[in-house]
Amino acid sequence: MSPCTGANLQTLWCGPRMWNRSAGWQPCATAKDCPSFHLALARGLKVASVQCRYAAPPSPASPHCPAWALAPSHVSHLWLPPPCLTCRLGAPEWPPGQSLDGVLWNVAWPWKDGGQSATCRPSCQGGVCINLTHMDRILKLNPEDFSVVVEPGVTRKALNTYLRDSGLWFPVDPGADASLCGMVATGASGTNAVRYGTMRDNVLNLEVVLPGGRLLHTAGLGRHFRKSAAGYNLTGLFVGSEGTLGLITAATLRLHPVPEATVAATCAFPSVQAAVDTTVHILQAAVPVARIEFLDEVMMDACNRHSQLNCPVAPTLFLEFHGSEQALAEQIQRAEEIAGHNGASLFSWAKEAEERRRLWAARHSAWYAALALRPGCKGYSTDVCVPISRLPEILVQTKEDLKASGLTGTIVGHVGDGNFHCILLVDPEDTEEVRRVMAFGEQLGRRALALHGTCTGEHGIGLGKQQLLQEEVGAVGMETMRQLKAMLDPQGLMNPGKVL
After folding, report:
1. Distance (Å, rounded) from C-alpha 52 to C-alpha 35?
2. For the segment 305-360, what is each residue's pLDDT rounded down to a tens digit?
3. Where do runs of H (alpha helix) occur along 123-268?
4. Phi and psi of 55, rounded to 5°?
5. Residues 6+ apart with CB under 8 A from 305
Protein backbone atom coordinates (compact mmCIF):
# COMPACT_ATOMS: atom_id res chain seq x y z
CA MET A 1 0.00 0.00 0.00
CA SER A 2 1.66 3.21 -1.17
CA PRO A 3 2.48 6.06 1.21
CA CYS A 4 0.06 8.96 1.23
CA THR A 5 1.43 11.93 -0.71
CA GLY A 6 -1.89 13.66 -1.21
CA ALA A 7 -2.04 12.65 -4.88
CA ASN A 8 -3.86 9.41 -4.14
CA LEU A 9 -6.75 11.05 -2.29
CA GLN A 10 -8.95 10.36 -5.30
CA THR A 11 -9.06 6.77 -4.04
CA LEU A 12 -10.30 7.98 -0.63
CA TRP A 13 -7.80 5.66 1.09
CA CYS A 14 -4.37 6.18 2.57
CA GLY A 15 -4.09 2.89 4.42
CA PRO A 16 -3.59 2.11 8.09
CA ARG A 17 -0.53 3.84 9.55
CA MET A 18 1.96 3.49 12.39
CA TRP A 19 4.57 5.84 13.80
CA ASN A 20 8.26 5.01 13.49
CA ARG A 21 10.76 7.49 14.99
CA SER A 22 13.13 7.27 12.02
CA ALA A 23 10.63 6.97 9.18
CA GLY A 24 7.59 8.81 10.52
CA TRP A 25 4.09 7.61 9.69
CA GLN A 26 4.24 4.60 7.38
CA PRO A 27 1.66 2.07 6.10
CA CYS A 28 1.44 -0.60 8.78
CA ALA A 29 0.38 -3.43 6.48
CA THR A 30 -1.13 -4.28 3.15
CA ALA A 31 -4.81 -5.07 2.90
CA LYS A 32 -3.90 -8.74 2.73
CA ASP A 33 -1.87 -8.61 5.94
CA CYS A 34 -4.28 -6.33 7.77
CA PRO A 35 -7.83 -7.68 7.29
CA SER A 36 -10.93 -6.16 8.79
CA PHE A 37 -10.77 -5.60 12.58
CA HIS A 38 -7.22 -7.00 12.72
CA LEU A 39 -4.80 -5.29 15.08
CA ALA A 40 -1.61 -5.04 13.06
CA LEU A 41 1.63 -5.32 15.02
CA ALA A 42 5.07 -4.36 13.84
CA ARG A 43 8.28 -5.05 15.76
CA GLY A 44 10.30 -2.03 16.82
CA LEU A 45 7.63 0.61 16.19
CA LYS A 46 7.18 3.30 18.81
CA VAL A 47 3.41 3.19 18.52
CA ALA A 48 2.27 -0.37 19.04
CA SER A 49 -0.44 -0.52 16.43
CA VAL A 50 -2.98 1.13 14.23
CA GLN A 51 -6.25 -0.69 13.89
CA CYS A 52 -7.36 -1.20 10.31
CA ARG A 53 -11.10 -1.74 10.13
CA TYR A 54 -11.19 -2.49 6.43
CA ALA A 55 -9.96 -5.22 4.12
CA ALA A 56 -10.74 -2.85 1.27
CA PRO A 57 -10.65 0.96 0.97
CA PRO A 58 -13.38 2.51 3.15
CA SER A 59 -16.16 4.71 1.92
CA PRO A 60 -16.48 8.38 2.95
CA ALA A 61 -19.34 7.25 5.22
CA SER A 62 -16.97 5.35 7.52
CA PRO A 63 -14.38 6.51 10.04
CA HIS A 64 -10.85 6.11 8.75
CA CYS A 65 -8.15 4.05 10.46
CA PRO A 66 -7.93 4.65 14.22
CA ALA A 67 -4.43 5.38 15.52
CA TRP A 68 -3.19 4.22 18.91
CA ALA A 69 -0.96 6.75 20.70
CA LEU A 70 1.28 6.07 23.69
CA ALA A 71 2.79 9.53 24.29
CA PRO A 72 2.11 13.19 23.42
CA SER A 73 4.93 13.08 20.85
CA HIS A 74 3.02 10.42 18.92
CA VAL A 75 -0.03 12.68 18.81
CA SER A 76 2.08 15.67 17.74
CA HIS A 77 3.59 13.70 14.84
CA LEU A 78 0.12 13.14 13.39
CA TRP A 79 0.28 16.72 12.17
CA LEU A 80 3.56 16.30 10.29
CA PRO A 81 3.30 15.65 6.52
CA PRO A 82 2.70 13.09 5.25
CA PRO A 83 -0.08 12.23 5.74
CA CYS A 84 -2.12 14.72 7.67
CA LEU A 85 -1.15 18.22 6.58
CA THR A 86 -0.53 17.10 3.00
CA CYS A 87 -3.93 15.43 2.89
CA ARG A 88 -5.62 17.72 5.44
CA LEU A 89 -6.53 14.62 7.41
CA GLY A 90 -8.15 15.35 10.73
CA ALA A 91 -7.39 13.52 13.96
CA PRO A 92 -9.58 13.73 17.07
CA GLU A 93 -9.10 11.65 20.19
CA TRP A 94 -11.09 8.71 21.53
CA PRO A 95 -11.05 8.20 25.27
CA PRO A 96 -13.73 5.87 26.67
CA GLY A 97 -16.96 7.40 25.36
CA GLN A 98 -19.01 9.51 27.73
CA SER A 99 -21.12 12.06 25.81
CA LEU A 100 -24.82 11.88 25.01
CA ASP A 101 -25.37 14.66 22.46
CA GLY A 102 -23.39 13.52 19.46
CA VAL A 103 -19.98 14.48 20.84
CA LEU A 104 -18.39 11.41 19.24
CA TRP A 105 -14.78 12.37 18.73
CA ASN A 106 -14.59 11.29 15.13
CA VAL A 107 -13.28 13.45 12.33
CA ALA A 108 -14.17 14.59 8.84
CA TRP A 109 -11.75 14.05 5.99
CA PRO A 110 -12.16 16.81 3.39
CA TRP A 111 -12.38 14.60 0.31
CA LYS A 112 -11.42 15.97 -3.09
CA ASP A 113 -14.93 15.31 -4.33
CA GLY A 114 -16.20 18.22 -2.23
CA GLY A 115 -17.62 16.18 0.65
CA GLN A 116 -16.42 18.74 3.20
CA SER A 117 -19.02 21.45 3.65
CA ALA A 118 -20.52 23.59 6.36
CA THR A 119 -23.37 21.14 6.80
CA CYS A 120 -21.55 17.80 6.78
CA ARG A 121 -21.23 15.78 9.95
CA PRO A 122 -18.08 13.96 11.07
CA SER A 123 -20.04 10.82 11.84
CA CYS A 124 -20.99 10.70 8.16
CA GLN A 125 -17.44 11.07 6.84
CA GLY A 126 -14.16 9.26 6.88
CA GLY A 127 -11.11 10.30 8.85
CA VAL A 128 -8.70 9.30 11.60
CA CYS A 129 -9.66 8.60 15.21
CA ILE A 130 -6.78 8.66 17.69
CA ASN A 131 -7.26 6.17 20.51
CA LEU A 132 -5.62 7.42 23.72
CA THR A 133 -6.79 4.64 26.05
CA HIS A 134 -3.26 3.14 26.21
CA MET A 135 -1.96 6.42 27.64
CA ASP A 136 -3.15 5.34 31.07
CA ARG A 137 -0.44 6.38 33.53
CA ILE A 138 -0.90 8.44 36.67
CA LEU A 139 2.12 10.66 36.17
CA LYS A 140 2.47 12.49 39.46
CA LEU A 141 0.65 12.72 42.78
CA ASN A 142 1.14 15.84 44.91
CA PRO A 143 -0.69 14.92 48.13
CA GLU A 144 0.39 18.02 50.05
CA ASP A 145 -0.92 20.21 47.22
CA PHE A 146 -4.09 18.15 46.66
CA SER A 147 -3.37 17.56 42.97
CA VAL A 148 -2.57 14.74 40.55
CA VAL A 149 -1.43 14.55 36.92
CA VAL A 150 -3.08 11.88 34.75
CA GLU A 151 -2.93 10.74 31.14
CA PRO A 152 -6.13 10.54 29.06
CA GLY A 153 -6.62 6.77 29.44
CA VAL A 154 -6.95 6.96 33.24
CA THR A 155 -10.56 6.53 34.33
CA ARG A 156 -12.33 8.01 37.34
CA LYS A 157 -12.54 4.72 39.24
CA ALA A 158 -8.91 3.83 38.46
CA LEU A 159 -7.76 7.14 39.92
CA ASN A 160 -9.79 6.75 43.10
CA THR A 161 -8.48 3.20 43.52
CA TYR A 162 -4.93 4.56 43.22
CA LEU A 163 -5.73 7.26 45.82
CA ARG A 164 -7.34 4.85 48.29
CA ASP A 165 -4.54 4.98 50.89
CA SER A 166 -3.72 8.67 50.46
CA GLY A 167 -6.74 10.13 52.27
CA LEU A 168 -7.70 11.93 49.05
CA TRP A 169 -10.26 11.34 46.30
CA PHE A 170 -11.53 12.83 43.06
CA PRO A 171 -15.25 13.50 43.54
CA VAL A 172 -16.61 14.41 40.08
CA ASP A 173 -18.86 11.46 39.28
CA PRO A 174 -20.87 11.36 36.02
CA GLY A 175 -22.01 7.81 36.80
CA ALA A 176 -20.06 6.04 34.07
CA ASP A 177 -16.43 5.06 34.65
CA ALA A 178 -15.38 7.63 32.07
CA SER A 179 -11.83 8.67 31.25
CA LEU A 180 -10.76 11.78 33.12
CA CYS A 181 -9.49 13.68 30.08
CA GLY A 182 -12.72 12.76 28.29
CA MET A 183 -14.56 14.25 31.25
CA VAL A 184 -12.42 17.38 30.84
CA ALA A 185 -13.19 17.68 27.14
CA THR A 186 -16.93 17.30 27.68
CA GLY A 187 -17.09 19.46 30.81
CA ALA A 188 -18.55 16.55 32.77
CA SER A 189 -20.50 16.91 35.97
CA GLY A 190 -22.56 14.49 38.05
CA THR A 191 -24.07 13.74 41.41
CA ASN A 192 -21.39 15.41 43.57
CA ALA A 193 -21.34 18.73 41.71
CA VAL A 194 -23.52 20.54 44.29
CA ARG A 195 -20.71 20.17 46.88
CA TYR A 196 -17.50 19.74 44.86
CA GLY A 197 -18.24 21.44 41.55
CA THR A 198 -17.96 20.22 37.97
CA MET A 199 -14.84 19.45 35.94
CA ARG A 200 -14.45 23.17 35.29
CA ASP A 201 -13.86 23.66 39.01
CA ASN A 202 -11.43 20.76 39.36
CA VAL A 203 -8.94 21.16 36.50
CA LEU A 204 -5.73 23.04 37.34
CA ASN A 205 -3.67 22.56 34.17
CA LEU A 206 -3.83 20.74 30.83
CA GLU A 207 -1.30 19.44 28.35
CA VAL A 208 -2.81 19.88 24.89
CA VAL A 209 -1.49 18.99 21.44
CA LEU A 210 -2.68 21.79 19.19
CA PRO A 211 -3.47 21.38 15.50
CA GLY A 212 -0.09 21.72 13.82
CA GLY A 213 1.67 19.69 16.52
CA ARG A 214 2.61 22.34 19.10
CA LEU A 215 2.42 21.26 22.75
CA LEU A 216 0.55 23.67 25.04
CA HIS A 217 0.57 23.65 28.85
CA THR A 218 -2.44 25.82 29.59
CA ALA A 219 -1.22 27.03 33.00
CA GLY A 220 2.50 26.64 32.34
CA LEU A 221 4.71 23.56 32.39
CA GLY A 222 4.40 21.65 35.67
CA ARG A 223 2.28 24.27 37.44
CA HIS A 224 -0.58 23.28 39.78
CA PHE A 225 -1.57 26.38 41.75
CA ARG A 226 -5.07 26.95 43.13
CA LYS A 227 -5.55 30.45 41.72
CA SER A 228 -3.92 32.84 39.28
CA ALA A 229 -4.55 36.21 37.67
CA ALA A 230 -1.90 35.67 34.97
CA GLY A 231 -3.25 36.24 31.49
CA TYR A 232 -6.20 34.53 29.87
CA ASN A 233 -7.73 31.37 31.34
CA LEU A 234 -6.49 28.92 28.71
CA THR A 235 -7.33 25.94 30.89
CA GLY A 236 -10.99 26.96 30.99
CA LEU A 237 -10.99 27.38 27.21
CA PHE A 238 -10.27 23.69 26.64
CA VAL A 239 -12.57 22.33 29.37
CA GLY A 240 -15.79 21.47 27.55
CA SER A 241 -14.33 22.13 24.08
CA GLU A 242 -15.50 18.67 22.93
CA GLY A 243 -12.32 17.86 21.03
CA THR A 244 -12.68 20.80 18.64
CA LEU A 245 -9.59 22.80 19.68
CA GLY A 246 -6.87 20.25 20.48
CA LEU A 247 -6.03 16.83 21.88
CA ILE A 248 -5.75 16.66 25.67
CA THR A 249 -2.80 14.40 26.52
CA ALA A 250 -2.55 15.09 30.28
CA ALA A 251 -4.60 16.81 32.97
CA THR A 252 -3.67 18.16 36.38
CA LEU A 253 -6.68 17.68 38.63
CA ARG A 254 -7.70 19.04 42.00
CA LEU A 255 -8.16 16.43 44.74
CA HIS A 256 -10.22 16.60 47.94
CA PRO A 257 -9.87 15.05 51.40
CA VAL A 258 -11.93 11.92 51.98
CA PRO A 259 -14.73 12.92 54.42
CA GLU A 260 -14.56 11.54 57.94
CA ALA A 261 -18.13 10.24 57.78
CA THR A 262 -20.84 9.84 55.14
CA VAL A 263 -24.59 9.33 55.44
CA ALA A 264 -27.12 8.85 52.63
CA ALA A 265 -30.91 8.99 52.69
CA THR A 266 -34.05 8.76 50.61
CA CYS A 267 -37.33 10.52 51.29
CA ALA A 268 -40.59 10.41 49.35
CA PHE A 269 -42.89 13.38 48.70
CA PRO A 270 -46.55 13.80 47.77
CA SER A 271 -45.72 15.79 44.62
CA VAL A 272 -42.94 16.96 42.32
CA GLN A 273 -43.46 20.49 43.63
CA ALA A 274 -42.90 19.41 47.25
CA ALA A 275 -39.69 17.52 46.40
CA VAL A 276 -38.19 20.39 44.43
CA ASP A 277 -39.25 22.98 47.01
CA THR A 278 -37.35 20.92 49.59
CA THR A 279 -34.24 21.03 47.42
CA VAL A 280 -34.40 24.81 47.17
CA HIS A 281 -35.06 25.23 50.90
CA ILE A 282 -32.14 22.97 51.89
CA LEU A 283 -29.79 25.00 49.71
CA GLN A 284 -31.16 28.31 50.98
CA ALA A 285 -30.63 27.11 54.55
CA ALA A 286 -26.93 26.54 53.71
CA VAL A 287 -27.06 22.85 54.62
CA PRO A 288 -23.81 21.55 53.01
CA VAL A 289 -25.40 18.64 51.19
CA ALA A 290 -22.94 16.61 49.08
CA ARG A 291 -25.54 15.08 46.75
CA ILE A 292 -29.21 15.76 46.23
CA GLU A 293 -30.88 13.89 43.38
CA PHE A 294 -34.49 13.90 42.23
CA LEU A 295 -36.34 10.92 40.72
CA ASP A 296 -39.99 11.09 39.73
CA GLU A 297 -42.45 8.31 40.53
CA VAL A 298 -42.00 6.62 37.12
CA MET A 299 -38.24 6.53 37.63
CA MET A 300 -38.63 5.19 41.18
CA ASP A 301 -40.87 2.39 39.95
CA ALA A 302 -38.27 1.51 37.30
CA CYS A 303 -35.40 1.57 39.86
CA ASN A 304 -37.37 -0.62 42.28
CA ARG A 305 -37.77 -3.25 39.58
CA HIS A 306 -34.28 -2.99 38.10
CA SER A 307 -32.24 -2.71 41.31
CA GLN A 308 -34.50 -4.66 43.69
CA LEU A 309 -35.23 -1.65 45.90
CA ASN A 310 -38.29 -1.29 48.05
CA CYS A 311 -38.80 2.47 47.93
CA PRO A 312 -42.20 4.19 47.72
CA VAL A 313 -43.34 4.84 44.15
CA ALA A 314 -43.49 8.60 44.56
CA PRO A 315 -41.37 11.67 43.73
CA THR A 316 -38.21 11.03 45.74
CA LEU A 317 -35.00 12.75 46.79
CA PHE A 318 -31.73 10.87 47.21
CA LEU A 319 -29.42 12.79 49.57
CA GLU A 320 -25.90 12.39 50.89
CA PHE A 321 -23.99 14.33 53.55
CA HIS A 322 -20.23 14.47 54.17
CA GLY A 323 -18.38 15.69 57.26
CA SER A 324 -17.55 14.89 60.85
CA GLU A 325 -19.91 12.82 62.99
CA GLN A 326 -21.00 15.93 64.89
CA ALA A 327 -21.55 17.97 61.73
CA LEU A 328 -23.55 15.17 60.12
CA ALA A 329 -25.93 15.00 63.09
CA GLU A 330 -26.73 18.69 62.65
CA GLN A 331 -27.11 18.39 58.87
CA ILE A 332 -29.43 15.40 59.17
CA GLN A 333 -31.62 17.13 61.74
CA ARG A 334 -31.96 20.27 59.62
CA ALA A 335 -32.68 18.33 56.41
CA GLU A 336 -35.37 16.25 58.12
CA GLU A 337 -37.05 19.41 59.45
CA ILE A 338 -37.13 21.04 56.01
CA ALA A 339 -38.32 17.87 54.26
CA GLY A 340 -41.03 17.30 56.90
CA HIS A 341 -42.26 20.85 56.45
CA ASN A 342 -42.81 20.03 52.76
CA GLY A 343 -44.73 16.82 53.44
CA ALA A 344 -41.93 14.24 53.17
CA SER A 345 -42.62 10.74 54.41
CA LEU A 346 -40.66 7.55 54.98
CA PHE A 347 -37.25 9.14 55.56
CA SER A 348 -34.80 6.23 55.21
CA TRP A 349 -31.15 6.65 56.26
CA ALA A 350 -28.22 4.57 54.97
CA LYS A 351 -25.16 4.87 57.22
CA GLU A 352 -23.26 1.72 56.35
CA ALA A 353 -20.99 1.72 53.29
CA GLU A 354 -22.75 -1.25 51.67
CA GLU A 355 -26.18 0.35 52.10
CA ARG A 356 -24.94 3.58 50.51
CA ARG A 357 -23.27 1.71 47.68
CA ARG A 358 -26.49 -0.14 46.86
CA LEU A 359 -28.50 3.07 46.97
CA TRP A 360 -26.21 5.01 44.65
CA ALA A 361 -25.71 2.03 42.36
CA ALA A 362 -29.46 2.12 41.81
CA ARG A 363 -29.29 5.84 41.04
CA HIS A 364 -26.43 5.37 38.59
CA SER A 365 -28.34 2.53 36.90
CA ALA A 366 -31.35 4.77 36.28
CA TRP A 367 -30.69 4.87 32.53
CA TYR A 368 -30.85 1.08 32.25
CA ALA A 369 -33.83 0.93 34.60
CA ALA A 370 -35.68 3.35 32.34
CA LEU A 371 -34.82 1.34 29.21
CA ALA A 372 -36.31 -1.75 30.85
CA LEU A 373 -39.71 0.00 30.99
CA ARG A 374 -40.04 -0.47 27.24
CA PRO A 375 -37.84 -3.33 26.01
CA GLY A 376 -36.57 -3.02 22.46
CA CYS A 377 -36.73 0.78 22.44
CA LYS A 378 -33.93 3.29 22.58
CA GLY A 379 -33.32 5.99 25.16
CA TYR A 380 -33.14 9.72 24.43
CA SER A 381 -31.90 11.98 27.23
CA THR A 382 -32.60 15.69 27.53
CA ASP A 383 -30.27 17.89 29.56
CA VAL A 384 -31.11 21.40 30.75
CA CYS A 385 -30.05 23.52 33.69
CA VAL A 386 -31.77 26.56 35.17
CA PRO A 387 -31.21 28.91 38.11
CA ILE A 388 -32.23 27.20 41.35
CA SER A 389 -35.11 29.64 41.89
CA ARG A 390 -36.70 28.56 38.57
CA LEU A 391 -36.26 24.84 39.14
CA PRO A 392 -39.71 24.15 40.68
CA GLU A 393 -41.42 25.97 37.82
CA ILE A 394 -39.66 24.13 34.98
CA LEU A 395 -39.82 20.69 36.62
CA VAL A 396 -43.55 20.90 37.30
CA GLN A 397 -44.24 22.17 33.77
CA THR A 398 -42.03 19.48 32.22
CA LYS A 399 -43.87 16.79 34.16
CA GLU A 400 -47.19 18.08 32.81
CA ASP A 401 -45.79 18.25 29.27
CA LEU A 402 -44.52 14.69 29.52
CA LYS A 403 -47.94 13.41 30.55
CA ALA A 404 -49.66 15.39 27.80
CA SER A 405 -47.24 14.22 25.09
CA GLY A 406 -48.17 10.55 25.40
CA LEU A 407 -44.45 9.66 25.42
CA THR A 408 -42.98 7.11 27.80
CA GLY A 409 -40.38 8.83 29.92
CA THR A 410 -38.95 9.52 33.35
CA ILE A 411 -37.40 12.54 35.06
CA VAL A 412 -34.16 12.36 37.01
CA GLY A 413 -31.78 15.12 37.91
CA HIS A 414 -28.94 16.68 39.84
CA VAL A 415 -31.37 19.19 41.23
CA GLY A 416 -28.89 20.64 43.71
CA ASP A 417 -27.38 22.63 40.85
CA GLY A 418 -30.56 23.09 38.80
CA ASN A 419 -29.80 20.34 36.28
CA PHE A 420 -32.20 17.55 35.29
CA HIS A 421 -32.88 15.06 32.51
CA CYS A 422 -35.91 13.46 30.89
CA ILE A 423 -35.16 9.93 29.73
CA LEU A 424 -37.56 9.34 26.84
CA LEU A 425 -38.09 5.89 25.34
CA VAL A 426 -38.56 5.81 21.60
CA ASP A 427 -39.02 3.23 18.87
CA PRO A 428 -36.42 4.28 16.26
CA GLU A 429 -38.53 2.69 13.52
CA ASP A 430 -41.50 4.91 14.37
CA THR A 431 -40.71 8.16 12.55
CA GLU A 432 -43.67 9.99 14.08
CA GLU A 433 -42.62 9.07 17.60
CA VAL A 434 -39.02 10.09 16.86
CA ARG A 435 -40.31 13.45 15.62
CA ARG A 436 -42.34 13.97 18.82
CA VAL A 437 -39.36 13.09 21.01
CA MET A 438 -37.10 15.53 19.18
CA ALA A 439 -39.76 18.24 19.38
CA PHE A 440 -40.13 17.63 23.12
CA GLY A 441 -36.38 18.02 23.61
CA GLU A 442 -36.24 21.27 21.63
CA GLN A 443 -39.23 22.67 23.49
CA LEU A 444 -37.61 21.85 26.84
CA GLY A 445 -34.34 23.44 25.76
CA ARG A 446 -36.09 26.65 24.76
CA ARG A 447 -38.09 26.70 28.01
CA ALA A 448 -34.81 26.53 29.94
CA LEU A 449 -33.42 29.42 27.88
CA ALA A 450 -36.54 31.45 28.58
CA LEU A 451 -35.93 30.96 32.31
CA HIS A 452 -32.34 32.25 31.97
CA GLY A 453 -30.88 28.74 31.99
CA THR A 454 -28.82 26.72 29.52
CA CYS A 455 -29.75 24.12 26.90
CA THR A 456 -27.15 21.71 28.30
CA GLY A 457 -25.86 21.38 31.84
CA GLU A 458 -23.41 18.53 31.26
CA HIS A 459 -23.97 16.55 28.04
CA GLY A 460 -22.55 19.16 25.68
CA ILE A 461 -23.57 20.57 22.29
CA GLY A 462 -22.11 18.04 19.83
CA LEU A 463 -24.42 17.70 16.85
CA GLY A 464 -27.78 17.81 18.59
CA LYS A 465 -27.95 21.28 20.10
CA GLN A 466 -26.17 23.60 17.71
CA GLN A 467 -29.27 25.69 17.00
CA LEU A 468 -30.03 26.01 20.71
CA LEU A 469 -26.43 27.12 21.31
CA GLN A 470 -26.91 29.97 18.85
CA GLU A 471 -30.09 31.01 20.62
CA GLU A 472 -28.32 30.83 23.99
CA VAL A 473 -25.13 32.82 23.35
CA GLY A 474 -26.29 35.05 20.48
CA ALA A 475 -24.63 36.15 17.25
CA VAL A 476 -21.65 37.87 18.88
CA GLY A 477 -20.98 34.85 21.11
CA MET A 478 -21.07 32.47 18.15
CA GLU A 479 -18.79 34.67 16.06
CA THR A 480 -16.29 34.91 18.92
CA MET A 481 -16.22 31.11 19.25
CA ARG A 482 -15.78 30.69 15.50
CA GLN A 483 -12.84 33.11 15.56
CA LEU A 484 -11.20 31.16 18.38
CA LYS A 485 -11.72 27.92 16.46
CA ALA A 486 -10.30 29.42 13.25
CA MET A 487 -7.24 30.76 15.08
CA LEU A 488 -6.40 27.49 16.84
CA ASP A 489 -7.50 25.14 14.04
CA PRO A 490 -7.30 27.09 10.75
CA GLN A 491 -7.67 23.96 8.60
CA GLY A 492 -10.70 22.73 10.53
CA LEU A 493 -9.14 19.35 11.34
CA MET A 494 -10.44 18.91 14.89
CA ASN A 495 -13.95 17.42 15.01
CA PRO A 496 -15.23 19.58 12.15
CA GLY A 497 -18.97 20.09 12.24
CA LYS A 498 -19.19 19.64 16.01
CA VAL A 499 -20.39 22.39 18.39
CA LEU A 500 -20.24 25.20 15.82
Report:
1. 7
2. 999 999 999 999 999 999 999 999 999 999 999 999 999 987 888 989 999 999 99
3. 156-162, 180-186, 193-196, 234-238
4. -90, -10
5. 369, 372
